[in-house]
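Q: Please design a sequence for this.
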């Protein structure tokens, strides 16, 4: 195998998301993936990412998942409630991707389903592995529960989790009497919602809570997906008016099936513009929907690039070839 100095140098690359944004001068793309279902190997991730890596993402985000309660049938015919974490492995996957592709990774961390002690352990693992980018989130209520409740000893809001990470950056661990501790150096991102978080009574209050996260130490914002760029630009304007000055990275997802016309608004609480939904509903099959969705994503991406956004973040779930076709068109 031919020795490459570039590859050798990149082995030691360790940059923060904010440094990537500064260095990219507007051409940054990043991808987000989910850990595979429990029992599947890391190859599922490599197969998903291999075609995408050609487009040189600045970093790869890996989502974090809580346990879900399920009813399991026992041999005597009765059911017992069991907690199953279907997608574990975020920290390990971040480390595996970083070493396999020499690319920076961003580990998502959530409040829901985890105690502060468990979160601290995950942060210590990330620190040992040289992964110092985290996106801190609250998480949602489990599927069978209507409202979010933190774990006993867990964080309630993303800002509480953010404060825990900031504490570690200042050398404050949960055991206060630890001596000569290492200060971590996490670059922290948070989520923003161009169409408002679904639980918040109004946009002004939601932005107030976002500002609190930034004031507490968040260095950038990644947005929920949106399909109308006007929502993103209006959101950025409201954030700037509220004194939020950090980069706001737009999050983008392709439409690839008719089912998504109802699933996406229900799951993510975002609108599909009439022009897009009309085109999708005219399609004969999902192959045609994918073409419409790809064209829409390309247009959205080009328009955002022209307006000088700090980067483009793609939710790649299940459809890497759609993202590849979009990359071919815009890069
Ligand atoms: P928060 O910032 O805690 O806000 C939640 C709600 O509480 C909002 O309505 C907010 O206005 C309100 N609020 C905030 N602070 C306060 C306060 N101090 N007092 C009163 N109200 C307050 N989920 C996962 O499970 N895993 C993931 O990996 C994941 N990744 C995501 C990535 C991105 C880019 C985005 C946009 C979302 C992601 N989610 C993920 C989903 C996210 O967990 C949910 O949207 C969740 O409902 C809210 O998370 P948050 O961090 O925005 O919460």
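A: Design:
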């Amino acid at each position: 195998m031919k020795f490459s100095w570039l590859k050798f140098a990149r082995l030691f690359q360790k940059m923060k998301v904010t440094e990537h944004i500064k260095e990219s001068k507007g051409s940054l793309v990043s991808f987000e993936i989910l850990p595979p279902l429990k029992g599947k190997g890391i190859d599922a991730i490599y197969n998903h990412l291999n075609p995408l890596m050609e487009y040189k993402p600045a970093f790869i985000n890996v989502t974090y998942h809580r346990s879900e309660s399920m009813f399991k049938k026992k041999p005597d015919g009765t059911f017992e409630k069991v907690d199953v974490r279907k997608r574990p492995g975020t920290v390990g996957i971040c480390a595996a991707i970083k070493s396999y592709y020499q690319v920076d990774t961003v580990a998502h961390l959530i409040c829901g389903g985890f105690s502060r002690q468990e979160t601290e352990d995950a942060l210590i693992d990330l620190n040992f592995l040289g992964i110092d980018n985290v996106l801190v989130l609250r998480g949602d209520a489990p599927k069978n529960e209507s409202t979010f409740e933190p774990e006993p000893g867990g964080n309630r809001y993303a800002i509480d989790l953010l404060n825990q990470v900031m504490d570690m950056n200042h050398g404050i661990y949960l055991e206060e009497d630890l001596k000569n501790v290492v200060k971590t150096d996490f670059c922290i991102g948070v989520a923003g919602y161009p169409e408002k978080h679904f639980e918040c009574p109004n946009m002004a209050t939601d932005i107030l809570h976002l500002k609190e996260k930034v004031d507490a130490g968040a260095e950038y914002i990644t947005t929920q997906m949106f399909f109308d760029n006007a929502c993103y630009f209006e959101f950025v304007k409201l954030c700037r008016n509220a004194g939020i000055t950090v980069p706001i990275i737009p999050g983008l997802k392709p439409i690839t099936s008719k089912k998504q016309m109802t699933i996406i608004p229900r799951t993510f609480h975002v609108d599909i513009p009439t022009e897009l939904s009309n085109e999708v509903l005219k399609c004969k099959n999902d192959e045609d929907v994918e073409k419409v969705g790809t064209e829409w994503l390309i247009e959205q991406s080009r328009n955002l690039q022209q307006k000088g956004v700090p980067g483009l973040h793609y939710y790649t779930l299940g459809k890497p070839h759609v993202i590849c076709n979009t990359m071919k068109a815009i890069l």
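Q: Thanks. Anything notable?
A: Residues 63-64, 108, 110, 137-140, 157-159, 191, 197, 199-200, 206, 209, 222, 224, 251 surround flavin-adenine dinucleotide (CB under 6 Å). The mean pLDDT is 94.
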